[in-house]
Amino acid sequence: LNAVAFIHRSNYLSNGDAGSGSLRYDLSLDGGASWNNDIGPIYNGDSARYPTARLTLPNTASPVSSNAKLVFTAPILGNSNNIWGGEVWGAVTPSQSSSYFFQTNTSNSSIKYSYRGAIWSAGNKLHKVQFQVDYAQVEGYTDTLIYSTYVLGSGISEVKIPAPMVHVVEPTLSIAFAPDGVVGYIAFSGDLGNMGDTTLYPIILKTADGGNTWSSPQAVNLQNIIDQNVLFGTGANGILTTGFEADLTVDALGNFHYFTNVGRAGATYSILEPPNQGLYRIKGDGTQFQADLVAQNMTMRGDFTAGPYQHGEDNRPQLAINSNGTRILA
Question: For residue 265, which of 318, 199, 311 has the smallest C-alpha distance?
Answer without folding.
Answer: 199
